[in-house]
What we know:
ABC transporter involved in vitamin B12 uptake, BtuC; two-stranded antiparallel ribbon; 4 strands
Amino acid sequence: MIPLPPAAARATAVAGSAIALAGTFLAWTWTDEFPGNLTVTGYPGGLQVLTLIGAALTALFALAGYGIRGLGWLTPGGTNSPVRLLALGVLGTTGYAIGAISYELGGLVNLEPGAWISGLGALIATIGALGLPADQGYDHDENPNLWGRIRHSLSAPEPGRAGELPSWAEILIIAAGFGTGLYVFAYGISTEYSELFIGFLIIAAFGFTAVTRAGLLKRLSALTAKHRNVTLAAAFAAAICFPFTQTNDQFALIGANILIFATVALGLNVVVGLAGLLDLGYVAFLGVGAYAAALVSGSPQSTIGVHFPFWAAVLTGALASLIFGVVIGAPTLRLRGDYLAIVTLGFGEIFRITMNNLNGNSGPDVTNGSNGIPNIPDLEILGFNLGVPHDVLGHELTRSGNYYLLMLLCTVVVVMVFRRSAESRIGRAWVAIREDETAATAMGINGFRLKLLAFALGASLAGLAGTVQAHVSYSVTPEQYQFAGSVPPNSAFLLAAVILGGMGTISGPLIGAALLYLIPAKLQFMAEYQLLLFGIALMLLMRFRPEGLVADRRKQLEFHETGQLDVPEDKPLPEGATGVAKAGA
């Protein structure tokens, strides 16, 4: 991108990173009115920490390009593109910090020398990184424009096959990977102000892309595929540790709500990702489960006036949603495409309006109308009251932490159901229906019955999550279950979580749901523009990564050129070769 000798470019990137890192140990502003107290010399805080981490990683990856022993494992794939991405991330984070300080405090005059030093160092590192050669050469007939050169400079080759390691070493690498992921996720949730969260998003996005281009994620994926049971256990253990890393109950509550959102998204993934049925009213099944659990919760405002134990309430919510799924799906699943989407959208709105009208005036008094069912009591399971803090191994587990662990158990159950279903004969039939229903029917697959099964299974999984959501939020109201709104979960956000994460995968909807819930929860000041930004993000995703953040092999082959011909070339047989003879010849 910038004509520099490779050696000089690498040295410039290392020097710039060192300068940016040194600047974080100096004050960035003179007043503590800016969040994070960036006035202290010798002790980085807030946005300074993000710049420090990004600069250190940039220098480390740049030094790996020298072939230093002990650093070669960092770049099994691309060598220079990770440096470019990390340098851009440091420049973006530091530039954002400088801009935020100037905007909130009233001008550049409020910046101290540390901010200027880090900003200059980040700029020098970026110039050096852009001067590094591309990791892949151009084709002979390729003459790209500026945008093509930028994209090419950020691409990297696939990592080679890793050498064999002892099983215990591979398991330790998997544990370290999940531990790092837990730390990053916990840090993102525990950011206490929006400026720090935006900086975290910038450096995390560039850092994740850099690690991917370096080939580290591919190597970790190969290990997790080899040790699948260990991977699931490590993921579960890391998730269990999350509430013990939080000192603020609000952050544990965000984690619990993320799991509720993610579990419902996984249920929708059965319908959309596996069976290919576009359901725009899916949030109604979550509402059915929540209302069923609220009615049997023993709440003083419940019109039924009964109190079921938790296991019975879960079965009631899941069964009610399953029945509604069958009742709605039976007459509508003979439709396809847009027609099915319109019908399911209508069902979602009918559910919300019906819950509003069952108020004793417009209809029977069942749901208290727009007032909903408040004062839902906390759950008590085997004498363990989830509404009361408990001391576990010297750490206080709050109410939100209790519900987080309960929801984590539900998520594990849903993941197991999804995984078993996807790998079964029924799951393969769903995929066949998704790809081409006419061809699947011609091969003897009963399309209607299997689509109804997917609809019922997805509905029951949403009802399972709804039973827990009712107790977490203390109340259920009709307005919680809309097609689109500023607060998830709603049908639009659930569908976006599946598409953003990657249809038909397990980890995709979990990641998509976490992002779509966490970002609005942290950026409250952007609530008015949330749907606008949401639409822009989806358009960018469809343009640059239509298969989603986590895509299966089928989607990658579908959306990206592989250089493989759809029909083999018609080449003549080599001299002396024998072709296929005609029958009877």
